[in-house]
Amino acid sequence: MAGFLSGLLGIGGGIVLVPALLYLLPLLPQVTSDNIAIIAVATSLLTIVVTAFSSARSHYKRGNVHKNITLPIAITVALSSVIAPYIAIWMGSSLLTSVFAILLFVLAIQIATGSKTNPESDNIPSTNVLAFGGLFTGFLAAIAGLGGGAILVPYLTVVGVNIRKSIGAAAACGMIVAMFGSIGYFISGYGWTDSSEFVGYVHWPTALMIMLFSYFTAPLGVKVGQKLNQAQLKKVFAVFMMLVATKLLFDQLT
């Protein structure tokens, strides 16, 4: 599911993986209510390195990755995603999960209610606008365990980039977010447990199994996405985000 949705929507797969890991990781003896969110986020981010790479490669082949749009975002995304893991540790599991859910819900509403459909032709915002989007995306995505597409796609569509180029840029930058964010979680979580199953806060056996499947399903999502128009893509994206956000918020309140 994470791989397919990464290709379809450029989201990296974290929207699926973080909620799933929040339910599954308590099966491990090292995981408690105090550390579950940080482990879920860190493990999700590592898988996105491979998932987003597979998705970005497929989008690139179809001309959806515009270098003048993607490059400024990629640079600032790398900078902010290195810092984010330390903020996530300070926030704690309950607050981290709530922030993740609220963020998804707000972005989903923005996409669902936006009546503007951007042109299929290339519209390139200024470098400053793109760089700000990268800083914002890298920081929030690394905190929430996302590839960044849930933040970057709506941001780029608001500033005038067409939906396919937005998804392509998000897939490419998602790999950068995941790579640098994972390094941050490796370092910040060093030595928290003696278990050989963890590298920092990342549970690597779980990450490995996810990556083995997501790598091959991401291109399928890209193929399906090419057949949908902009309005259809936005609706699919928004509805899915709302469902996940509602479920997470409900769990926090009950």
Helix content: over 70%
Count of helical segments?
10
Mean pLDDT: 81
* String of helices and strands: HHHHHHHHEEHH
Tell how many strands the DSSP assignment holds: 2
**Alpha carbon gyration radius:** 17 Å
Lateral strand order in the biggest sheet: 1-2
**Beta-strand content:** under 5%
Q: What is the rounded distance between the termini?
A: 27 Å
- Overall shape: it is globular
Structural class: mainly alpha
The main sheet comes to: 2 strands, antiparallel
Q: Catalogue the unreliable spans.
A: none
How would you describe the overall organization of this protein?
The chain is an all-alpha fold and 254 residues long. Helix content is 76%, strand content 2%. It is built from 10 helices and 2 strands. The protein has helices at residues 2-9, 14-24, 36-61, 67-91, 93-113, 127-144, 149-158, 163-188, 204-226, 230-253; strands spanning 198-199, 202-203. It has a two-stranded antiparallel ribbon. The radius of gyration is 17 Å and the shape is globular.
